[in-house]
Amino acid sequence: MRRRGFHGFTVKVNRTSLKRLTALIIVGVMSLFIFTGVLTSFEPGYGMASSSINQWANGLEGEDFVHLLGMENQYFKQELPSDAEAMSLSGVAFQVATSINPDDPRSLLGRELPGFSLFDGQIIVAGEGTDYTNLPFESAPPLEVIMAEREATKESLAKLEELKQAGDNLQGSTDGRKVAHIIHSHNTESFLPELKTDVVNEAFHGEVNITLVGEKLSQELEKRGIGTEIEERDVQGALKNRGWQYAQSYDASREFVKEAIAQNDDLQFFFDLHRDTLSRDKTTVTINGVEYGRTVFVVGGDHSNYEHNLKLAEELHEMLEEKYPGLSRGVILKAGRGTNGKFNQDLSKQSMLVEFGGVHNSLEEVYRSAEALADVFADYYWNAEAVDGTDDVETEEAVDVSAADGEEEEK
């Protein structure tokens, strides 16, 4: 009887264990389906994707990477400092699954606050006073401003004529070759001191605008022996004729840049000039008693050439810091949602977008900045030419335009 009782107890225990195991399997399968459903139900950009993992991996610290290797091979951990802290696996899992970085509140606020994505740029090199509260950003003019022409002051119109006359007889000495190209994707961006208005959103004009800074930069480069060409066509006019939105400015200017590359094999460097909308104290610096409109380099990170363009921007920033301390606000990398992410820099490995001053700066102030940039760029160019030992700077050729267009573009 005891034996039967014992066997009966054993059978009962086995049946209970089997039921529990079955229940665990069912719950596990259901949990897996629920988890998979949650991940796939997120809107694009909110769930776990390869881009999220790539973004996390790019920001991985050196010690964290060694910790990951050490999970497979303890030998690697011998190289870590004695005070090194182990990485938080829960934090990593949370960041990869949600694309939210616990150490960067912008990754959460950007989804909740309209327009907050403007601050998603990454500061690669911070100039004096540069932080995430004063990143450069592009603001579209109100429709009524686009349709109505602003009135410029007589002094500004006089500056326009004077500048054009000053450049009539200039000729670079790169054997007659035009090696630098200047374009203005937002060519109507203007400066309040030159207009009969003090409203920031009205700082746009058909003639007195950022293109004058491009003309000044061209003249200063020519004076220093660097042949330069300027895109004279009206990008914003092309937008208007096609019924395109302001956000498509780079799509319109892209066509002009591609044509320039196709028509001139000598082109090596590409400048797209803009002006910022920040307050005067953020965009102005005094150097040796003279006021300048501060510059900032913006690099698009959504293409394969961005590291080349980033390196060029960093070098020019450092050169500006050495000769004109405080002039450069730094180097900003922009990529992902809420921005163009390319700025046509995928067409050339030596392309840059430069913001000159802001709406509150005068033309004289940004002219000085253009001269300063031409000064350091000429040093960069001719030093590279001397190292190369030929007439051309040893640089990467412009990328295959057709190949660049093969990449998906954001409209």
UniProtKB/TrEMBL annotation:
Residues 389-411 are annotated as: Disordered. The chain crosses the membrane at residues 21-42. It comes from the Bacteria. Keywords: Membrane, Transmembrane, Transmembrane helix. This is Stage II sporulation protein P. NCBIfam families: spore_II_P.
